[in-house]
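Dear colleague,

Thank you for sharing your sequence with our group. We've completed the structure prediction you requested, and as agreed, I am returning the results in plain text so they can be pasted directly into your records. Please verify that the sequence below matches your submission; if there's any discrepancy, let me know and we will rerun it promptly.
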Amino acid sequence: MYIEINNLKKAYGEGGSYNEVLKGITTGVEKGEMCVIQGTSGSGKSTLLNCIGGLDDIDSGSCKVDGKEIANLRKDKLSDYRRDYLGFIFQFYNLVPNLTVRENIEVCRYLTKNPLDLEDLLETLGLKEHADKFPSQLSGGQQQRTAIARALIKNPKLLLCDEPTGALDSKTSRDILVLLEKINEKYGTTMLIVTHNNSIKNMVHRVIYIKDGEIARSYTNEKRIPARELEDL
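Please find the predicted structure tokens below.
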């Protein structure tokens, strides 16, 4: 398994405000898989993503990525892990408003020793003609594409996506999902996608349902539906 999680626990607060969000998660994802993590609000899915991404401390248990144990890493080692392994895509694009598309992407290009080719990435993501525009001149879908390019330029081994289509209409959502599918096929990038959208689970290799901080169900899709054919986005 590329991602191996064993009895992972995470809680917030103390005393009367103590809340155990993850209650012993054990699961795994193979290298190159696209995996959807689903669950109702407060189920713990985003907390799990944040623990894997080193954004939240892990209280107990094990979380290995590519054989590397990330639980209890020192802050400097966590920074190295995020820099060398991960790309992040969020619901909100967090682009720098006074930088162009190209410049927003290049910010992360300088963080890695082995970046992807910028011109090839702009072409792949349909951003070539928008490279010199500022975020305010872009549609929501174009801004999300730029955010994806910024995450991908690092050539990450693992892409963590938290509601990547949450702020988009159905047509633009489909375009973004087609793009993520294309990236997975072209670069072999392992992807974890947290989403409320029930249709997205049909396009991925693996589905994990979390309920009340525990794995309720986990399965591999025997027959995936291409992103362009998904309904009810």
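Summary note from our side: The mean pLDDT is 93.

Kind regards,
the structure core
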